[in-house]
Structures are given as C-alpha cells and as structure tokens.
Amino acid sequence: MKFLKLFTPFKIKNMVVSNRIVMPALHTNLAKNGFMTDKLNNLYAERAKGGCGLILVGGCYVSHYGMGVPMMIAADDDKFIPKLTEFTEAVHGAREDVKVGMQLYHSGRYSMDFVIKTTPISSSATYSRFSKCTPRAMDMEDIKREQQAFADAAVRAQKAGFDCVEICGSAGYLMDQFLSPIVNMRTDKYGGSLENRLRFPLETIELIKGAVDEDFVVGMRMAGDDMMEGSITYKNKIPIANAYEDAGIDYLNITGAWHETKVPQLTMDVPPGCYTYLAENIKNNVSIPVFASNRINDPVLAEQVLMADKADAICIGRGLMADPYLPEKAIRGELHDIMHCIGCNQGCFDGLFAMKPIGCLRNARLANEAKTELKPITEKKKIMIIGSGPAGLEAARVAAIRGYEVHIFEKEDRIGGLLNIVHIPAGRHEFYRMLEDYQYWIQKYGITVHYGTEVTTDVVKEFNPDFVFLATGTLPIKPPIPGIDGEHVYWANDALNGDVPIGNNNVIIGGGATGIELAIFIAKYGKLSLEAFEFLTNYKVLENDDALSKLYKGNKKVTVMEMLPRCGANLGKSTKWVLLDKCDMLGVKFLTGVNVTNIAKDSISYTDASDKEQVLNDVDAVYYATGVKPNNELFKEIQALGFVVERIGDVKKPATVLEAVGTAFKIANKI
Fold first, then answer.
1. Which residues contact 419 (CB under 8 A, 6 or more apart)?
2. Quick one: pLDDT at residue 8?
3. Which end of the chain, N or C, is less surrounded by CB atoms within 10 Å?
4. Which residues of 385-406 are buried (b: 16+ CB within 10 A; e: fewer)?
C-alpha cells in the first residue's frame, strides 16, 4: 500500500512536524515523586527512534491540586526543570526531527483526596463518580492561582526544551468542569452562559500565550462529545473550538468523551476509528490543524482518515506502546511485521488502576526498554516448544529472533490455543489479530510447526532438544455437581468453538470472564449480520427498528449463575463494566451468590444467598465455566529425562494473557 499523506510533513504555526503520526499523552506510572526517570526517557526515546512525528508527554500536573493520581509527571515547580531537560534531550537525541510536547494537566474534581491530602477543587461542588469525591467550589483566589499555574508550567516546558505544550481540556478534567453545565453551577462570571463558562479556559490560554515566546506552539486537547447526559454534545462543540482558535490555540487534538461516560471509549469492542467523526466535525469549522484520536492503531486506517479529510494528523497512542517502530515499518512497507495493539487494556489501563507501571500484552519490553534488548546467541541450539498458545508463540518468536532453531509441537491442526476461542465473542475479535501476527512471524523467522503431534516422553527423547518450553495450557475444572455429566451439559469453550449445540434456554455455571463472554456469544447467536441489515434496510424489506433489533441480538435466553456476590471478578477494571453493561442490554439474567446443587434433564436446582432451595425450569442446555487447572503432567516426566525444561503460561499457574506473554518473553530472552 502507498501512504500518500500519513508520512508527509505539516506545519503547526511555525513548527514543522515530519509526519502526521502523533503519540498522545498517556499516563505511565513511571515518574518518581513527580520527576522524570530513566525509564520514561528510554520509553519515549524508543518511540522517537521508531519514527513518530510528534510526541506529547503527560499529563504533567501544573499544581498540587491538579495531581490526579500518584506517579504522575510534575511541572508545578522549577525543581523539575533539570530532569525535564534531560528528557527532551534524550528524545531529541534519539531522532532530531521528532517534536516533543508537554501536556499541561489539571484533574480538578478528578483528583483523589487521599492523593492530594486535601479536598479537590472544581468549578462547583458537584460529586464525581470517577474520583468518588465531592470537590470544593473554587473561589476567585483559587481561579487566579490555578490559571497562573498553567502559565508557569508552560514556561518551564519551554525552558526544558519542549517544542510545544498542550492544554488538557478533555475527558472531564478541569477545563471541561468549567465548560459543562452538569458540573458548573456557578452564578458568577464563570458560570451560566457558554460565554461565561468559557471564561476560565480562555483566560488561561491568554496567560499561557503571554508567558511563552510568540512562536511557541500551544495546543488544546478537547472532548469531541462529552457523552454525558445534559452536557455538551458534539454539535455544540463547534463554538468552543472557534473560541479556542480565536484565543490563539495553534492546534486542536480531538478525543472522545469523559472518563465518567457510560459509552466505551478505548476497549476492544469500540470499532477502530468510529470516533473520527468528532475530529471531522471540528476540522470542518476551524482553520488550524486538527488531530483525530481513539482506537486508531493501524497506519492503514490512519491513512484512510487523512485521505477522507477528517483530520490533519492522527493520534496513535497504545499502538506505539505495542510497537514503537510502527511508523518505520509502515514506511518500509512491512505492515505485517507490526505488533498490533488489540485494545485489551490489560497492561495499559488495568495495570495503572492497580498502581503498577504501564505494561503491554503485546510488548513485554514496554517500560523496561534498557534491560530487555534481545540478545543474539553465540551458539545455535535447538528449542522444543510444546503447545502454541500465547506463551508458546511468544517464546518461539523471541527465541527465533535471537537465532535459535525453534520447533513448535502442537497437538491440534492449528496454532493459537485459547486465542482460537477468546476472539469469538462479539467485541473480542481483535484477539484474532494477535494470532495473525504470530502466523506471520512463524514464516518470517523460519519456525517449524509440527501439527497434530501429541508430545510424549518418547517424542522428546527422539527430538533431543537443548531446551524445552512446556506451554500446554490448562484443563477445565468440572465441578462435582450431580448431573454434570448429562448429555446436555457442556464445557464453555466447546460452545465458543462451535463443537456443541446452543440451546434455546441456556444456563452458564460460572460468572467469570469465560462465563460472561459465553453469555454475550449466546445472546447474540443468530443475530442479523451487518451486510444483511444493510441489504434489507436499503431495499426496505425490513423497517429500521425491526432490523436494528435483529442486528443487535438473537433469540436465545441466557442465565449466568455465580457463587460470588458479583460476576466478572477476574476481568480487568476497564473492561468489566463494558461487558456487564452489554449483558444487561442483551437481556442476560444474572443469579449471584448461588450454589448449584443438581442438574436435571430440563432444570437446575440451586440454593440462593439466603440458603433457600430454588429451581430453574425449562433448561435445555447447560455450560460450565468454573475455572481451569494447569496441564503440567509432562513437566516432571521431561525433567526426569534430564532435559532443561521451563514452564510458561498457564501450565505453571492460570494467568492472564498479559502475564503469559510477559513470562514467555523473559524466559526466552534469558536462556
């Protein structure tokens, strides 16, 4: 494919950006007491080497009140300038034509009171579902102080060698808290009309522009649609964008909605590029450059958005975390070699919520670039990998790149293990892209795959490897429930794989990740396809409302039974609410705090939370998703033969795909 626009330069004021790939500000949990660290320097230097045009770093909090969560980058004191300078020198030193900007951040009511050790501040004292705090309404002294803090931070950024700053005016942070009528309840000159609600951000812009050099670029990241009931919709964002341009803002970085919205923004089930209409809406009404954001992690899609004149540049955040060399690979035409972000959120969001450094399911080197360079071997040896799930495939990739002769032994007729299952439910399809990537690397690095091979000790002895990786995954745990061996009772994965029938009235025992994903799969079973929907509505065979109902769900009934008080305990925080909301929309019924006592031919008996016996009738299919156990019987047998063997992935203990891939990378790079 030819890239006719993505890799052309463009200007923001007098700043020339070498291409149209922008890495937006992403929280990493890598700062230390507000200071830049070597890990941050190395992380962003790697992205600079990879060919990104503009890197935006942050959020960098401009005042103590603005610090949202721990381990953020600080820009609220001159003491941070030396480390910030080291950072810009590291990025510019990695690639001199890469521009780097600081995002000026203030969380307002999104600050956690236990983090800032005081009551957060905002336009008004309105409760935030995100921080679980009610802030204090800012008085005039607060307003002037926090506005000046933005200007002072911009000056520090310029002194530290940043090429630009970007005001964080999106996602429900402080600027939005003044703009939105559902937060701003003020009756003074900063509240009421849009003109008054704009006063805080416009005065802040004026202070920043007056404090930095005339040619210094100042941008604004703004929500393209708040997606909050009663707040500002995308059609009403145009006057705000116009006001920002008139105030001297040099570019607009258009992102999605607030953190508090009930509309998913970044999870896997958000269609790639579906929010580009937000950037297009603004671009059609301003003359300054406009960036498009949210779920654009592929250079081909980025090119299409640009060619459609929906934006002037494309923000690729998690895509560059997954593969810092995405731009260079695209320029060279090596699109298949890109390690694609799949929107799983396991490392980049769920880890951050757990106060861990940023990670990536696809890229085990992320945030530890200096210590994870792949080490070429000095003596070629033979590697045997038993099993081709995520851990086995990653170990094979890493070992092959290092120079080993790698052989994968897979008992099935295809690679992937559980990757062949987890991509099936609606909204989880991008896991298949991960499988496609590994299929490419198997060819590229000359990895031999032995399909349909059940490995025994005799097979190991005959192959005689120098190292063995055992990646045989897990086995299902069948609960000891009377009737569990009935003809209408099946393992959940067999249902997802299409190996067993789907009933009309279905019960799933187990409300963890697999149980919820199966519930969505069954609830959508037999729904109208998008192609059929388009055909039938274009020809007016079906009315739109009828077609929409058939497009979204099938006609199967689903009940999920879970012993715990809540379902989804093993799902990541950023994904769980999305999947549970989807279940609610699809009419999935949840019975929690229950214990299944018997499975009959057409009913299930159980005790509820009050220990009362209950019966669910007219059940024609039951699926159990009650956990798994390591499939590690071969481990000691191979050890007894005297071979060096390592367990990776679930075979050691059940793990997330993030953990499985990370461990496989580490061990394969160490042997």
1. 389, 390, 431, 432, 434, 435
2. 98
3. N
4. bbbbbbbbbbbbbbbbbbbbbb
Q: Is 187 among the domain residues?
A: yes
Same domain, 207 and 93: yes
Q: Is residue 14 part of a domain?
A: no
Neighbour count for residue 305 (Cβ, 10 Å): 21
Question: Kind and range of the H or E element at 74?
Answer: strand 73-74
Return the CATH number at 637.
3.40.50.720
Contact 170, 101 (CB under 8 A): no
What pLDDT is recorded for position 609? 86
> Which structure tokens are listed for 362?
């696809």
Whole-structure pTM value: 0.94
Q: Give dist(CA 113, CA 38) in Å, integer.
A: 29
Verify that 175 and 262 share a domain, yes or no. yes
pLDDT tens digit sequence for 217-246: 999 999 999 999 999 999 999 999 999 999
Say if residue 639 is in the same domain as residue 535: no
Do 486 and 468 share a structural domain? no
Q: List the CATH number of the domain containing 525.
A: 3.50.50.60
| Contacts made by residues 541-548, CB under 8 angstroms, sequence distance 24+ | none
Residue 183 belongs to a domain:
yes
65 in the same domain as 25: yes
Residue 9 inside a domain? The answer is no
Q: Which domain holds residue 536?
A: 478-626
SS3 (DSSP) at 133: strand
Confidence of residue 351 (pLDDT cuts 50, 70, 90): confident
Of all residues in the chain, what percent are helix, strand and coil, respectively (each to 5)?
Answer: 35, 20, 45
Q: What local confidence, expressed as pLDDT, does residue 317 receive?
A: 97
Closest by alpha carbon to 153, among 220, 104, 217, 219?
A: 104
Count of structural domains, the chain: 3
Instruction: Quickly count: other Cβ atoms within 10 Å of residue 539's Cβ.
Output: 8
pLDDT tens profile 437-476: 999 999 999 999 999 999 999 999 999 999 999 999 999 9
